[in-house]
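Batch manifest line 463
LIGAND: iron/sulfur cluster
JOB: complex structure
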Amino acid sequence: MGPLSRLAPKPVKFVLNWGRRYSLWVFNFGLACCAIEFIATSMSRHDFIRLGVIPFAPGPRQADLMVVSGTVSDKMAPAVRRLYEQMPEPKYVISFGACSNCGGPYWDSYCVTKGVDQIIPVDVYVPGCPPRPEALLHGIVRLQDKIAGESLGDRYAPSNGVGGEPVAPPPAPRPLSATVLRRPVQPPPDAGETRPLPPPLADESPAEEPPAEESTAEAPTRETPVVRPTEDVTQPVPPVEDEGTPDRADRNEHDPSIIPGLAEDGHDDEIGRDR
Amino acid sequence: MSPEPAAQALTEAWTARFGDEITTEETFGGRAVGVPPEHWLDALTFARDDLSCGYFDWLTGVDELDEGFAVVVHVYSLERRHHLLIRTRVPKRAPVLPTATGVYRGAEWHERETSEMFGVLFEGHPNLVPLLLPDGFEGHPLRKDFVLAARVAKPWPGAKEPGESGHGAPSRRRVRPPGVPDDWGPHA
Ligand code: SF4
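JOB STATUS: finished
ARTIFACT:
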């Protein structure tokens, strides 16, 4: 829909923009006191649903609009950026309040980001500390005007020099690969004592080469790795060792490495030990 | 103002245990007991076991400039309903204190925060790494000699009266922002 809408005739563009501007699923990045005003705007008295802003998207992946309301700290900034990147295109950002506009009352703080526009592109700024709900309504209307006037083809065009108002460019490619940002895949918990070990590369590679000729040779070798015979020499960790230490076997049942930092020891409250 | 009988009994219990080594004082935050750093763990254990202060509320630090850093603990007795502020002072040159995590396990994160904010080292702490500051942060930002670099780079953007722009009263600009040394900044 995005690149093709450039070729669409004008009435179709109008309809597409009309649909987009009145169904903004909003995702509230509430970080401080301004979030309360955002909530007030979503409630019955101000009720921004009548403008087509649908609050409480299930998550950033379902949202069209992110409202950053509150104090962005340097520690939080990567999370803001990451959740912004998770939103599907086309996406819009309203910076709500003095803090997320420029740092606000904490302009000289050691830990506050001086404006959320340092990390993500912002479409509409709403000033105030906190802004009144009417100010957010005004900001939403301004954003809808902007959506009505834009063309997605121009928005994602490589050189975007023609439009009147500059629109948010697509974000730069992320420096980390997606696997770094995700938790490692955990083995199923019912494995218990004989956890499925990763198949060693040394005996996997000869098994991989023959299947080019006949696929039946692969079938018996494929079934064995889950419960591996103990006489296998290349097995990295024999499961017998795990039975010797009872607490280690106990920990295998609920794998603590799901939470970073818990894997090293038995304490529950030492999150962040391995940073 | 004479202290209430219960508070008086608390003071007497401290004096009976530690003698002249401690000072007690009535503050706005409740009864405060000052102990030397050598008796820090003894005092906490005494408060927990003998004064039944089993509820650990918080631990923090105070930068008292030349006198060093004060480390303050607030504990509360759920049974007997009394508060206690226990505090000690470590020198600025070598701010080292034994960890209170052996007495109150909940002190762990508080000590991590105090350590990163004030640079107080808690000996024996199981995991003394920064808790709240972003990765790679240098310095201890709640020390009073920590310079807020944003103040150096940029004058205060506000105005005292509505409608007053930042361009009025140029003489005020010459004044250094609080806490910024004289040889910092563009006008140095
Ligand atoms: S702008 Fe004011 S009201 Fe909003 S988060 Fe910052 S301090 Fe709170």
